[in-house]
Amino acid sequence: MLERRLSLSTGVAVGAAAGVKAVGASPFLSASASASASSPSATSTSSPPPPLPRPPKSLAAYLKVYRQLSKARLSALVVATAAAGYAAGSPEEVDYVGMAWASLGTALCSAAANALNQAYEIKTDALMTRTMARPLPAGRITRFHAVVFAGLSAVAGVSCLRFGAGSPEAAALGLGNVFLYSAVYTPLKQFHPSATWVGAVVGAIPPLIGWAAASSRAEAKEAKELKEEEEKRAQPQPSLPPAAFVLAAGLYFWQLPHFMSLAWLCREDYARGGHKMLSLMDATGKRTAACALRNCLYLMPLGFLAVAAGTASAPFATESAVASGVLAALAAAFWARPSNGTARALFRGSLIHLPVWMGCLLLHRVPNTSENREEQRLEKVVERIERGFTRGYPDFNSSSSSSQKPPMPLPGPFLLPPVMPGLGGDRVSWGGLSGVGGCPSKAACDDDDEREEKKKEGEEEGGSEGEANSFTSSSSSTRRWWQVWR
Question: Which residues contact 215 (CB under 8 A, 6 or more apart)?
């Protein structure tokens, strides 16, 4: 009997020790969890069920939910870049009614994309500290409610861009950006760090939306002012010329140092949410900082490209280079010593850089009118023609050309061959490109006319004097042809 009690007590002790060891093997279990595991009625641990939706009780509560679904502060930044693109693509007078339609359409498209993003990331948002208070993880509305809100916002935004701003190109860009953000960027964050670069493309499109809306509205206004016969001959200008992509490139390159610094500051939060970020694969921070620095350097020549494209005047090139240089210095400090302090300085610097850069562009913008575009096009054409003539054809009218050998002419069909003496005439033909009537100069043509008249008079007289004049004219033209072509 005593032996049976000893064996029973020993078995209980061994079982208790094994239970304590099993509970202690998991460092994430709290004291209450270990107590419930040691009790006989304990069940297997599982993730807590999602909270039941608690619908808002007032209109103000609904508006707050919609503002959070839309990410109001981020959408405001997107609208500001679209408005800057509209102003940069406008003529001398900015059409503020069209700008309001374009801004409203861009805001609604941004709200739709952000709502779809949150409807997709309910589980990951619930795991991250900075996103767990959003309406969907907190259970204030349902996923279906958020998707319906996103769909209505997208339809309204595209309609504002198409019919309010009057630009089918802007409407197509808005709809495409909603798709790119919600269907490509959002799922890609769970699989590959390249999602950051896709997101940069999404952020670069709103300035193009504004530019396209401004160009379409300006062209529609010009078409009404033209007469019917002039309207038939008028050639439509592209709504998105190469100059528009300078502003889009500025937004694209700016986003990478902005988001790389943010990704380094929030790398632990991104790890809990399961996002694949470059900062999570970079233990030292050098690669993250190098990416930020590289794109800051890409920002520096954009001011000169804007001036060359006719988007802004010359002072913007210097101001853009200085502002981007300051941002590059902050990125270089982050690269030299990766830390939360240097990353936070770069993040705050990027928040200052963008409004300064866009403000300088709008301050020195060149009006986007058809006259200015036509004038710039003609200037380029004339410059190319003059460059071609300078390289290929000699200037016989200048005083210094007589002492220099003329360069060889350009090959091809642009230069007519000279007329050889005795083969149909005795003038050097330059196709009307230099001089008058195909002669090197007007004086040479006058001399040839006099010689021809004397030659005809000599032939009519039938004497030896006509033969001498003919021989003199032929020899002089041969000598002149040789001097030109040797």
Answer: 89, 167, 237, 238, 239, 240, 241, 368
